[in-house]
């Protein structure tokens, strides 16, 4: 495809804009009306806390059933996302840009004194637009930060399923595509099953909502996390049985570390005396967990994340670096985030953090980093 054709196919059509806005509107409605566990968020600096309706799994299952019904009746094309991929990409970028500008304006004009909506203005407009001004902005009662994460994760699944449909339509479905689809689908549904764990992550409790998070949730997650699927549509990869087994081992290891580490942290925040690996937890200064995976590395959940990202790319083989963009990007991102986390924790916990670092010297990968 030449540059002119590429630019032409990237211009959002009314159909792609309608699809995108319908998707967000649909998610907003079902997220508000479907039953779900009400999970209290972290206690904010003013003593208040938000509550989240965690019905992501039910919402995603209902969405897949409705989508299946639409495909069966011919109302929806199973390959519509693939067919309009560039249009949806550019439409999502424009939407993210506009939303982040509106959030910036709303934050600057806010007079709210509560921790969730209190404006944090640095004076640098670009900085405030990028990192955000308010911690938990809302629209019509919907927590936007929580909503955008859900929209991005489910969007990733929908893109993958459209890629799978296109692969079947083209007659090039193979073991590599099946592996990639199984890993991602399991990971996404598992994410929604444990959606309440998201409420205790750094993004939710500490990051303000600006372009960085809006763009990351709505565009970066669905469109870059699915690069391997797009690549497999155009490239045939024949994996040996040994390669499949090795890939499965990497996935299982990554999932185990990622899920268990996040579970331990979440349980500890709810009940600091809950046993970990059958023993009372070791707690530094009454605040920092140094047991289980958190006694092995200070950000061991990032190791699980990296292994999972690698397992999503391994079905593509080693003939091209393109499918490995996601794990390489994630490695850079997590090291950058880990450094920011460490600086904030050192400022927040002071001597307690220094003691924790002595007991747990490794940042992500023991004996390496």
Automatic annotation (TrEMBL):
Main location group: membrane
Membrane disposition: Multi-pass membrane protein
Pathway note: Steroid biosynthesis
Keywords: Lipid biosynthesis, Lipid metabolism, Membrane, NADP, Oxidoreductase, Steroid biosynthesis, Steroid metabolism, Sterol biosynthesis, Sterol metabolism, Transmembrane, Transmembrane helix
Gene3D superfamilies from the UniProt entry: 1.20.120.1630
Gene Ontology biological process: sterol biosynthetic process
EC category: oxidoreductase
Ranges in coiled-coil conformation: none
GO cellular component: endoplasmic reticulum membrane
Subcellular localization, as worded in the UniProt entry: Membrane
Its EC number(s): 1.3.1.70
Residue intervals passing through the bilayer: 20-44, 56-76, 88-108, 147-165, 177-197, 209-233, 239-258, 279-296, 308-336
GO molecular function terms noted in the UniProt entry: Delta14-sterol reductase activity
Similarity field: Belongs to the ERG4/ERG24 family.
PANTHER family (alphabetical): DELTA(14)-STEROL REDUCTASE (PTHR21257), DELTA(14)-STEROL REDUCTASE TM7SF2 (PTHR21257:SF52)
Name the record gives this protein: Delta(14)-sterol reductase
Species in which this protein is naturally found: Spinacia oleracea (Spinach)
């Amino acid at each position: 495809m030449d540059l002119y054709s590429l630019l032409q196919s990237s211009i959002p059509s009314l159909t792609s804009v309608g699809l995108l806005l319908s998707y967000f509107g649909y998610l907003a409605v079902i997220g508000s009306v479907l039953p779900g566990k009400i999970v209290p968020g972290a206690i904010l600096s003013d003593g208040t806390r938000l509550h989240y309706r965690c019905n992501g799994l039910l919402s995603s299952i209902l969405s897949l059933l409705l989508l299946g019904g639409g495909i069966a009746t011919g109302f929806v094309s199973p390959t519509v996302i693939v067919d309009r991929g560039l249009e949806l990409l550019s439409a999502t970028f424009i939407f993210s840009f506009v939303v982040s500008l509106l959030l910036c304006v709303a934050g600057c004009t806010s007079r709210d004194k509560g921790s969730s909506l209190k404006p944090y203005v640095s004076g640098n407009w670009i900085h405030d637009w990028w990192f955000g001004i308010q911690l938990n902005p809302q629209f019509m009662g919907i927590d936007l930060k929580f909503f955008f994460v859900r929209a991005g994760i489910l969007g990733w699944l929908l893109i993958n399923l459209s890629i799978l449909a296109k692969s079947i339509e083209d007659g090039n479905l193979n073991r590599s595509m099946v592996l990639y689809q199984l890993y991602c689908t399991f990971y996404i549904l598992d994410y929604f099953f444990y959606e309440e764990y998201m409420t205790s992550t750094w993004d939710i409790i500490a990051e303000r909502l600006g372009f960085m998070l809006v763009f990351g949730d709505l565009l970066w997650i669905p469109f870059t996390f699915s690069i391997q699927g797009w690549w497999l549509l155009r490239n045939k990869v024949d994996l040996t049985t040994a390669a499949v087994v090795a890939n499965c081992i990497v996935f299982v290891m990554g999932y185990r570390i990622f899920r268990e580490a996040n579970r331990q942290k979440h349980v500890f925040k709810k009940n600091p005396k809950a046993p970990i690996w059958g023993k009372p937890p070791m707690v530094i200064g009454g605040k920092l967990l140094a047991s289980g995976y958190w006694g092995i590395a200070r950000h061991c959940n990032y190791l699980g994340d990296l292994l999972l990202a690698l397992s999503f790319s391994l079905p593509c083989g080693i003939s091209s670096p393109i499918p490995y963009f996601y794990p390489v990007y994630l490695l850079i991102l997590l090291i950058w985030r880990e450094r920011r986390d460490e600086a904030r924790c050192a400022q927040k916990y002071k001597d307690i953090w220094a003691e924790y670092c002595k007991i747990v010297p490794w940042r992500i990968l023991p004996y390496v980093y």
